[in-house]
Amino acid sequence: KNYVIATKPRVDLRKAKIPKHINDGYFRRACKKKNTRTEKDIFAEKEEKYVPSEQRKADQKTVDEEVLKAIKAHPEAKVIRRYLKSMFSLRTNQYPHRMQF
Fold first, then answer.
1. Which of 13, 6, 25 is nearest to 99 (CA)?
2. Are 94 and 4 in contact (CB under 8 A)?
3. For 20, left (φ over 0), alpha (ψ -120 to 50), or beta?
4. Rg over CA atoms, the chain
5. Domain assignment of residue 88, yes or no
6. What pLDDT is stored for residue 4 in this prediction?
7. Domain count for the chain
8. Would you give per-residue pLDDT tens digits along the chain (101 residues)?
9. Name one GO biological process term (predicted).
10. Is the dihedral of CA 40, 46, 47, 52 positive or negative?
């Protein structure tokens, strides 16, 4: 019984209290400005690994709590929770945006 049927479950998040500072700009990727060619370019630089700040971690917990409240308030909460926990995978030439039943 390890399968997922792609559907469009809907959870009402209108009552969720999400902080005002979480908007589209909050999720934009920070772009590094490249320096002009210098001697530094000769040597390979090690890329810095992204580490979320404490503010982002706290924001994630806040949003998670609100989403879980909305899921629990849904009339079919048990089914939605099972649906979200189920395994999902795609094979070659399977596009999730085209899968609707």
1. 6
2. no
3. alpha
4. 20
5. yes
6. 58
7. 1
8. 566 566 677 899 999 999 999 998 888 887 776 666 665 556 666 777 888 899 999 999 999 999 999 999 999 899 889 888 887 778 888 887 777 65
9. ribosomal large subunit assembly
10. negative
